[in-house]
Amino acid sequence: MSHPEQSRHLTTVIPGPESQALTNRRAAAVARGVGTTMPVYAARAGGGIVEDVDGNRLIDLGSGIAVTTIGNSSARVVEAVRSQVAEFTHTCFMVTPYEGYVAVAEALNRLTPVRGEKRSALFNSGSEAVENAVKIARSYTHKPAVVAFDHAYHGRTNLTMALTAKVMPYKHGFGPFAPEVYRAPLSYPFRDAEFGKELATDGELAAERAITVMDKQIGADNLAAVIIEPIQGEGGFIVPAEGFLPALLDWCRANNVVFIADEVQTGFARTGAMFACEHEGIDPDLIVTAKGIAGGLPLSAVTGRAEIMDSPHVSGLGGTYGGNPVACAAALATIETIESDGLVARAQHIGQLMKDRLGRLQAEDDRIGDVRGRGAMIAVELVKPGSTEPDAELTKALCAAAHSAGVIVLSCGTYGNVLRFLPPLSISDELLLEGLDVIELVLRDL
Predict the structure, then answer these.
(1) What is the DSSP letter of 293?
(2) Contact 224, 144 (CB under 8 A)
């Protein structure tokens, strides 16, 4: 196993001829609806670098959308996967089970900030885990309705599209969607400031606004679950005002409503805590995890209070591939890597580096409306100069220029105006700062 050299290097324009040839093959073979951020094709990756088929080495500030948190070819994961593949690739846990699934469930029960006795169930994708969390909540409460929040993203399956707030590209033309899904206002400090400083800074006040909507429009007697990302991902890396999440949780507990934390993007050390819920000391009823769970292999989970998790009937949960043995081996190696290599502290360090650098840039450039996030999950919200009006065109141009310069960055946000940074925790400080140098130079040029 050899990582690519840990330096940014462009041997061709982006995309190079080999990537362009693959793009042409792709156009004839792959459905048009599958989009890509960059027209380059990966050949090797590791540390903080993705090397393409033309030999270009790109600084990775995206981690495959927060999946390769510990790097694209982490040594423990590679070894664990090789070892498991040699034994067996599949038997189906629902037919002849195996220890790996049980061991992952035990690890999740140990790590997740859910109080009391816990249980876990394993699935394949974040969307699938979210759907199962809703199934479990409905089974436990015998109530139908679910509340999600403004700017939320929970997936691309039918139920999770209903939970997701943004129509393009996720929902347009794909309805009708699952019923009994409602939406409440989120605490979005940067935008809430337009309605007064108190709402922007007082999470309990913002929670009152949401609770009023839930009480009036749905009613607690009809509400099975509230689902929320502790820090929103696709919606723009929105960190709610302090007190918002605890107030929601208190209301849920008082009204027999299951509180589901969607930690698909925020879990596994990404935010400078093992789970983002820990930043506010909340203990959800159910936690949904995926993305960073298994070093790049498809795996997801729902972990929660035993009485809730055990409410569905036997065989009510499952799936042919759920908790695949190779993915379970990767997950155990991923968790060992995070704990043994001190990656929670590493995420905190990366967050400080990014916030310091981007904060200085914000002080000089009034197109940067907000710098926010936690740990290695930081965002810049771009606006028209001196205003709060979103600037999606600037964001698009900035991403395109960064890509051409050999830096992988992603955009997000309801208004398409947020630049998000999700570097792997295996990236060096030097590469991270060089990537931010490129962003700064590009922003000046624009």
Answers:
(1) G
(2) yes
Pairing mode of beta strands 286-289, 300-305:
antiparallel
Q: What are phi and psi of 234, to 5 degrees?
A: -55, -30
**Per-residue CA distances from 11 to 18, 26, 47, 400, 422 (Å):** 12, 23, 20, 18, 25
Q: β-strands 145-149, 181-184: how paired?
A: parallel
Cα 42 to Cα 28, 158, 350, 411, 435: the distances in Å are 19, 31, 25, 20, 18
Residue 74: partners with Cβ closer than 8 Å, 6 or more residues away = 295, 333, 334, 337, 426
Main-chain dihedrals φ then ψ at residue 84, nearest 5 degrees: -70, -40
Please state, in angstroms and rounded to a whole number, the distance separating the CA atoms of residues 42 and 19: 9
Per-residue pLDDT in tens (0 to 9) along the chain, 446 residues: 578 999 999 999 999 999 999 999 999 999 999 999 999 999 999 999 999 999 999 999 999 999 999 999 999 999 999 999 999 999 999 999 999 999 999 999 999 999 999 999 999 999 999 999 999 999 999 999 999 999 999 999 999 999 999 999 999 999 999 999 999 999 999 999 988 889 999 999 999 999 999 999 999 999 999 999 999 999 999 999 999 999 999 999 999 999 999 999 999 999 999 999 999 999 999 999 999 999 999 999 999 999 999 999 999 999 999 999 999 999 999 999 999 999 999 999 999 999 999 999 999 999 999 999 999 999 999 999 989 999 999 999 999 999 999 999 999 999 999 999 999 999 999 999 999 999 999 999 99
| CA-wise closest residue to 121 among 333, 330, 316 | 316
Distance CA 267, CA 331 (A): 13
Q: What's the CA dihedral at 272, 278, 284, 288 to 10 degrees?
A: 10
φ, ψ at 324 (rounded to 5°) = -50, 140
* Torsion angles phi and psi, residue 24, rounded to 5: -65, -40
Distance CA 6, CA 69 (A): 17
Contacts of 189 (CB under 8 A, 6+ apart): 200, 201, 238, 239, 240, 241, 372
